[in-house]
TrEMBL record:
Belongs to the ATP-dependent AMP-binding enzyme family. GO terms for molecular function: propionate-CoA ligase activity. It comes from Oryzicola mucosus. This is Propionyl-CoA synthetase. Residues 68-451 form the AMP-dependent synthetase/ligase domain.
Length: 635
């Protein structure tokens, strides 16, 4: 089939308002918009101003009323616990409505914030949708973050209530959530009034009298009472959620997502970009704590009337490298979306693809990869073993859905390995030099998007409009700065090569090295430090810390390094995957005092590097090379 991509992209470019107005017809509105796009509102304009809608209605109730009541909406598959559960759209509605009744009884109203700190269980999805039903704003916090990170998010979003669980489960260990939750509330200035706690059978926790509510008891009572909770109409521009993502400091950025534009964009993406039809089974093997989980485990598949899969497990080890293929065959999955790191993990354990052959993948059509650069070797391996298209696509927490992709829904374009293909309708992607001038095709530069951003992208940061302007809009006036470096080739294909800031991508998880440096600097023996991301065959990158100790420290350096590793785990959480510290005598700096992190990274990755002309003392780089060599010999 010839691709319609070029025609559709040109149609969007010629008439963006007309294009999005047409896409918006696929959504139910309780009040239609005054303007499709109003450039006078918000920082760079707002979409569907004047309109009213409800995201839960469109994701759940509409399908119950429209003939999908008995179709599966959600399949929970948990190889880590051995549990499975299935919910039809009617059952999903009953769960969501009952939880919404509980939240309303606890005083949650339109506009109130609710933090959801949950493992990958169906109740996490119910919680998100229950908030959406009430017009409350959820903020999901990934379970691998520590108490301090949770406390930062509590203080920033000031939730009225937190929904959590007794534990998460990682391979070989139970992660009790309650001590993390209580620790976070003790640390935070803002104190939520209530916590609703789901007791899991693997591990139960004590509840605090007067503050904590038992999830199951409260939901059962609401179901018995049969309390109806209608979907509360909200402005299309009202926030649906806040999702914190790493910024360039330890203070994460609260990415805000609205209701109206978000629904329009996600619904459009399912058919046109992912090539999936209502009623089909779609699986994003991510976590609800990340944007991929928000968009493609929960909202997009449900808005589209699909069946979504919620997977509590890992690509390998739960129990083996065939788990993904087992889930696909057992549930009839047509499209899988995951991070390249998951495939590198599978490939590492099943290079011959023995497990792939064991399962019936006849319904499976496409594999989508995102979250980090997909290395061509991994893509080729997946293509060979699966004998299906493997689609690399590029996006960010900020955009909420793909910026560039090979749009299988519109007809697949030729694949270029290493490229997440072409800009999607809505996105005018350009590459500028540091002075803000367009560069020639094929030349590396700053990847930017011409404003306005399309519907679904973030309109601002939560209560931080100035930070939003400064971080994203100021450097290249008229454009959104993606903070990715890359180039566009003669055919319009994008190549995303690296971040231009301090963000690193560890196993598909976005982390700030600046945030880690803040933690290292807290250790009493550390005088100076730098954290860089170094190459890792499975996780893509892993953090590596360099520390200079205070003068006169005589303690064993190995002990101090262990303490530093433990400190990062305690402050940021296990997800930081911070396990490597190298003690050095001095940090390499320019004469003006800037730490030469780029050169350090090249040395650590055994890449070719040039002596920076501005270096203060070239001998320091030899010291670093020696320290790294000694460390590798010791490990
Ligand atoms: N709760 C508590 N701890 C968690 C956690 C959670 N939700 N998620 C991860 N962790 C812990 C892990 O147990 C591990 O702890 P350890 O240091 O004690 O071993 C640590 O955080 C690092 O986790 P991770 O980097 O994920 O490594 P891993 O070895 O556990 O798994 C992969 C590696 C590749 C299998 C896994 O990272 C993966 O599936 N990644 C895909 C990521 C993804 O879906 N990204 C979203 C974009 S699509
Ligand atoms: P996150 O906000 O966690 O989704 O991370 C976004 C960042 O991940 C982007 O800015 C990129 O640096 C990187 N990224 C995501 N998808 C891709 C991709 N397909 N190719 C290259 N980098 C990617």
């Amino acid at each position: 089939m010839a691709s319609r991509y070029h025609e559709v992209y040109a149609r969007w470019k010629a008439d963006p308002d007309g294009f999005w107005a047409e896409a918006a017809e696929a959504i139910d509105w309780s009040r239609r918009w005054d303007k499709v796009f109003d450039g006078d509102q918000g920082v760079y304009g707002r979409w569907f101003t004047g309109a009213e809608c409800n995201t839960c209605w469109n994701a759940v109730d509409r399908h119950v009323e429209g003939g999908r009541a008995d179709q599966l909406a959600l399949i929970y598959d948990s190889p880590i616990t051995g549990a499975q559960a299935k919910y039809t759209y009617a059952e999903l509605k009953a769960e969501v409505e009952a939880l919404a009744a509980v939240l309303r009884e606890q005083g949650v109203d339109k506009g109130d914030r609710v933090i959801i700190y949950m493992p990958m269980v169906p109740q996490a999805v119910f919680a998100m949708l229950a908030c959406a039903r009430l017009g409350a704003v959820h903020s999901v916090v990934f379970g691998g973050f520590a108490a301090k990170e949770l406390a930062t998010r509590i203080d920033d979003s000031t939730p009225k209530l937190i929904i959590s669980a007794s534990c998460g489960i990682e391979p070989g260990r139970i992660v009790p959530y309650k001590p993390l939750l209580d620790g976070a509330i003790a640390l935070s200035r803002h104190k939520p009034e209530r916590c609703v706690i789901l007791q899991r059978e693997q591990f139960s926790c004590d509840l605090i009298e007067g503050r904590d509510v038992d999830y199951a008891e409260a939901v059962d009572a609401a179901k018995t009472a049969g309390t109806a909770v209608p979907c509360v109409p909200v402005a299309a521009t009202d926030p649906l959620y806040i999702l914190y993502t790493s910024g360039t400091t330890g203070q994460p950025k609260g990415v805000v997502r609205d209701n109206g534009g978000h629904m329009v964009a996600l619904k459009w993406s399912m058919e046109n970009e992912y090539g999936v039809k209502p009623g089909e089974v779609f699986w994003a093997a991510s976590d609800v704590g990340w944007v991929v989980g928000h968009s493609y485990i929960v909202y997009a598949p449900l808005l589209h009337g699909c069946t979504t899969v919620l997977f509590e497990g890992k690509p390998v080890g739960t129990p083996d490298a065939g788990t993904f293929w087992r889930v696909i065959s057992e549930h009839g999955v047509v499209a899988l979306f995951t991070a390249p790191t998951a495939f590198r993990a599978i490939k590492g354990q099943d290079i011959e693809g023995v497990f792939v052959k064991k399962y019936d993948l006849s319904k499976f059509r496409t594999l989508f990869l995102a979250g980090e650069r997909a290395d061509p070797e991994t893509i080729k391996w997946a293509e060979q073993k699966l004998e299906r298209p493997v689609i690399d696509h590029w996006w960010q927490t900020e955009t909420g859905y793909p910026i560039s992709q090979n749009p299988v829904g519109l007809g697949q374009l030729p694949v270029k390995y290493g490229s997440p293909a072409v800009a999607m309708p809505g996105y005018d992607v350009q590459v500028l030099d540091d002075a803000g001038h367009p560069v020639a095709r094929g030349t590396l530069g700053n990847v930017v998007i011409k404003l306005p951003l399309p519907p679904g992208c973030f309109p601002t940061l939560w209560q931080a409009e100035e930070r939003f302007r400064q971080a994203y809009l100021e450097e290249f006036p008229g454009y959104y700065k993606t903070a990715d470096a890359g180039y566009i080739d003669d055919d319009g294909y994008l190549f995303i090569m690296a971040r231009t800031d301090d963000i690193i991508n560890v196993a598909g998880h976005r982390l700030s090295t600046g945030g880690m440096e803040e933690v290292l600097a807290e250790h009493p023996d550390v005088a100076e430090c730098a954290v860089i991301g170094i190459a890792d065959a499975m996780k893509g990158q892993i953090p590596c810390g360099f520390v200079v100790l205070n003068a006169g420290i005589e303690r064993d350096h190995g002990e101090i390094e262990k303490e530093i590793v433990a400190l990062v785990r305690e402050r940021i959480g296990p997800v930081a995957a911070f396990k490597m510290v190298v003690t050095i005598k001095r940090l390499p700096k320019t004469r003006s005092g800037k730490i030469l992190r780029g050169t350090m990274q090249k040395i650590a990755d055994h890449e070719e590097w040039k002596m920076p002309a501005t270096i203060d003392d070239p001998a320091i780089l030899d010291e670093i090379t020696t320290a790294l060599r000694q460390r590798s010999a010791a490990v």
